[in-house]
């Protein structure tokens, strides 16, 4: 019997055609990595990390985004073991491991003995998809955020991030987080209801490809929660982003966040996959 040879190495621009084929096996689930690959063309100075490829007999079988986030792509069990060895050998320490639950949890089992308990393991996160406009009447107040409204929207972004992730996004690099929020506004990827200088609702497109985009940071002002604002507001966002960004809208949510899940279901999002996030 011939022995299968395998290797893990950092991918380069020469690997883009083969990597694109791998990512296109599941373009919605692999949206984040495809966005990073398309926007950086695997140039290290822009990527802020690497994308590793796992090869068997010279064929790209799996991949893994290794930067601030560790994100496995079409990862087999053998690939996960190889990626874990590479992570530990290169002393890579991301802030999170994110992706399909069936890949993230086995990868975390390999890393946890060396890294210790996770700060916040989120073991079941419905990945939800909507490929049409919502049946809910859209809230006409939702609109793209203007760059001169940065100082108005920014505190809501910080509040949402802190509430959701459990850490202050300014703790590491205040300028870095401010730059990211400004970038999303400039791209036309930030949407909100703003009245009298108060952010009532907001969300952003965090990543996009020609096929699909992913919403992040869905926020309703604490004083207004439970009043049915999120559904019509998200309906408006879906309509806007399908017109201007991509035809399919995705997001993922913590399984225990019942109010958010119900709101997304009312809008029309359907649970198609299950993600997991290990926050470190």
From TrEMBL:
Gene3D superfamilies: 3.40.630.30. PROSITE patterns: GNAT. Residues 140-280 form the N-acetyltransferase domain. GO terms for molecular function: acyltransferase activity, transferring groups other than amino-acyl groups. InterPro entries: Acyl_CoA_acyltransferase, DUF4081, GNAT_dom, UCP21603_acetyltransf. This is GNAT family N-acetyltransferase.
């Amino acid at each position: 019997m011939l022995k299968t040879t395998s290797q893990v190495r950092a991918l380069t621009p020469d690997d883009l055609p083969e990597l694109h084929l791998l990512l296109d096996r599941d373009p919605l689930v692999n949206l984040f990595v495809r966005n990073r690959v398309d926007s950086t063309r695997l140039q290290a100075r822009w990527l802020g990390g690497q994308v590793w490829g796992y090869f068997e007999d010279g064929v790209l079988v799996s991949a893994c985004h290794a930067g601030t986030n560790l994100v496995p792509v079409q990862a087999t069990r053998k690939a996960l073991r190889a990626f874990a060895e590479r992570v530990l050998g290169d002393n890579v320490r991301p802030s999170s491991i994110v992706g399909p639950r069936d890949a993230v949890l086995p990868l975390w089992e390999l890393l946890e003995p060396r890294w210790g308990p996770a700060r916040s393991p989120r073991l079941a996160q419905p990945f939800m998809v909507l490929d049409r406009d919502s049946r809910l009447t859209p809230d006409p107040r939702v609109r793209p955020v203007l760059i001169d409204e940065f100082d108005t929207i920014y505190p809501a972004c910080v509040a949402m991030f802190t509430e959701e992730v459990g850490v202050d996004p300014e703790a590491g690099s205040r300028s870095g987080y401010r730059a990211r929020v400004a970038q999303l506004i400039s791209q036309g990827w930030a949407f909100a209801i703003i009245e009298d200088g108060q952010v009532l609702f907001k969300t952003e497109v965090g990543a996009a490809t020609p096929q699909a985009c992913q919403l992040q940071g869905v926020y309703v002002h604490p004083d207004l929660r439970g009043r049915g604002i999120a559904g019509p507001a998200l309906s408006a966002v879906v309509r806007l982003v399908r017109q201007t960004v991509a035809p399919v809208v995705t997001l993922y949510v913590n399984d225990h966040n019942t109010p958010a899940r119900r709101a997304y279901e009312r809008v029309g999002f359907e649970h198609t996959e299950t993600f997991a996030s290990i926050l470190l």
